[in-house]
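Note to self: keep these together.
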Amino acid sequence: MRAALIIAFVALLSWALWLRGEAIDAQAEAAAVTRELNTARADLATAAEANRVHRAHIKRLEAQEAEWADMARELQSMEGRDARLSDHLRAAAGRLWP
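Structure:
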């Protein structure tokens, strides 16, 4: 009877030690997953900031494009737009746009 009690105690102690090892492994795995999650969150925040900057840049480009289109329409509708340039202006334009 005493041997059976010792065997049961050893089995219970072995099971408790095994359970403790599993708990330690689970904690280590949870810590690794937490680190991966924090890294993913940081990457997501970086991507969101890059997206915000990119959209702001696109918005500025669209505003500039609209401004240039308005200027081009205005120049096209001006009276005398196809008149000859003076010699002085033609020479200056030739230097700017060879």
